[in-house]
Amino acid sequence: MQNNILISLRDIFVQFDDDIILDGINLDIRDKEFVTLLGPSGCGKTTTLRIIGGFVNPTEGNIFFDGKNINGVPPYKRQVNTVFQRYALFPHLNVYENVEFGLKISNVPKEERKKRIKEMLELVNLKGFELRRIAQLSGGQQQRVAIARALVNHPRVLLLDEPLGALDLKLRKEMQIELKRIQQQMNITFLYVTHDQEEALTMSDRVIVMNAGKILQDGSPTDIYNEPVNAFVADFIGESNILEGIMHEDFVVEVCGKVLPCVDKGFGKNQPVDVVIRPEDWDIGKPEDSQFVGVVESTVFKGVHFENIVDIGVEKLMVHTTQQHNPGSRIGLSVIPEYIHIMNKMDEDESFALTALEADSIPIDEDELEDYTSPEFE
Q1: What's CA 190's distance to the chain center, in Å?
Q2: Is residue 183 part of a domain?
Q3: Can you say how many angstroms the Cα of residue 290 is from the centroid of all Cα atoms in its chain?
Q4: What is the DSSP code (8-state) at residue 170?
Q5: Can you tell me the distance from the alpha carbon of 210 to that of 157, in angstroms, rounded to the nearest whole number?
Q6: In the prediction, which pLDDT does 358 show?
Q7: Distance (Å, whole) CA 17 – CA 23
Q8: How do beta strands 283-285 and 271-277 pair?
Q9: What are the mean pLDDT values of the chain's consecutive 10-residue runs (378 residues total)?
Q10: What share of the chain is helix, strand, coil (3-state, %, to 5)?
């Protein structure tokens, strides 16, 4: 494999009637990576997953697996297994029988089946649950069974389509850590789909941010958070103050009526730009010693910090602090150049997407989807 690339999508275009679902996607996924597709409903992330799994054929473009074109290869002939939002477990079978099902379909010998099932149940911390019925399991335990069943056939890639969506917050956080542990222990590629930025940042080696059928940014969690390529990414990946600015020259930007030093360059002279400053990047100080002066309009305790809305006259800013500032308090705000992120202004489509995220996605016949989620296709 060139550069350890396992999966390549080249010029993938998907259209359903008049709706463009994917618009010229190009993506490489390396062997043994944990990659997350992140974006709002309707951005094309689940369709991308389905294309790799073989459940959707692209209108145009090619899919390569280990250097071989797999266009038209059915799901059950790909070295890929999928864990769906609906776990598709058999309620009339116990845990052992659910995990065993795909192995029996593949005619794996009985002793080998026992060995693999034992290994998988230990991997997902379900040792001793072999005889439990599915109805006797919690949501998190059912998810672990679905993961064990998907991994027991030793796939090269595991596709996960928002598998934590049905779990409560505490269990979701626990399972984020568990999934990363399982991926590292199995030493295979995980491709994960979510709209939850915390999940993406917690688990991933790489995050692919998508919107309107396009890839907007591809990078490490740190790069995506600290260096968003545009205001949509900045807004989607976390809380942000997105402000209008003017780039007077390299390293000099005007924002909220103040001319400030920054670390960005390469923009046109006096070019209108978007300026992103994260809420946690503001320094609180005395009004007379600060770049901006404002009045605290509201404050909400978030557990590890206070979220304040500060009115500086021309804008209302979100500011995170560890100390409480009561509404009506007059405070000073400053930001160092490294925390001022400059980017080209969004076009109309991106601006609309920030305020009106549309519902998903490519229509698929429900009976057909049930067939795809059956274990015989895993």
Answers
A1: 12
A2: yes
A3: 37
A4: H
A5: 21
A6: 36
A7: 14
A8: unpaired
A9: 85 93 96 95 93 95 96 92 82 93 90 94 92 90 91 93 82 87 93 92 94 95 91 88 96 97 95 95 95 97 93 96 95 96 75 44 38 38
A10: 30, 35, 35
Distance, C-alpha 45 to centroid of its chain: 9
Residue 14 lies in a domain: yes
Q: What amino acid is encoded at 51 in this protein?
A: I
Which value, in Å, is the radius of gyration of the alpha carbons in the chain?
24
- Asked whether residue 246 is domain-assigned, the answer is no
Nearest to 66 by CA among 40, 29, 38: 29
Contact status, residue 365 vs residue 92, Cβ threshold 8 Å: no
- Order of strands, sheet of 206-211, starting from the edge strand that comes earlier in the sequence: 80-83, 157-161, 189-194, 34-38, 206-211, 214-219
Cβ count within 10 A of residue 349: 11
In this structure, what CATH number is given to the domain that contains residue 318? 2.40.50.140
Please report, as a single letter, which amino acid is at residue 308: N
Structure tokens belonging to residue 167: 């779990």
Q: What is the pLDDT of residue 2?
A: 56
Question: Which residues touch 58 (CB under 8 Å, ≥6 apart)?
Answer: 12, 13, 14, 22, 51, 71
- Domain of 321 in residue numbering reads as 283-334
pLDDT of residue 175: 86
Distance from C-alpha of 348 to C-alpha of 173, rounded to nearest angstrom: 36
Q: What DSSP letter does each residue of 315-351 carry, written as one string?
A: -EEEEEESS---TT-EEEEE--GGG-EEEEPP-HHHH
Say whether both 150 and 114 belong to one domain: yes
The two tokens of residue 41 are 């409903």
Q: How many residues are given for the chain? A: 378
Please report, as a single letter, which amino acid is at residue 290. S
Closest of 345, 343, 334, 337 to residue 263, by C-alpha? 337
3-state SS assignment for residue 238: coil
3-state secondary structure of 275: strand
DSSP secondary structure letters along 177-188: HHHHHHHHHHT-
Residues 137 and 98 placed together within one structural domain of the fold: yes
* CA–CA gap between residue 71 and residue 195 (Å, rounded): 27
Terminal-residue alpha carbon distance, the chain: 24
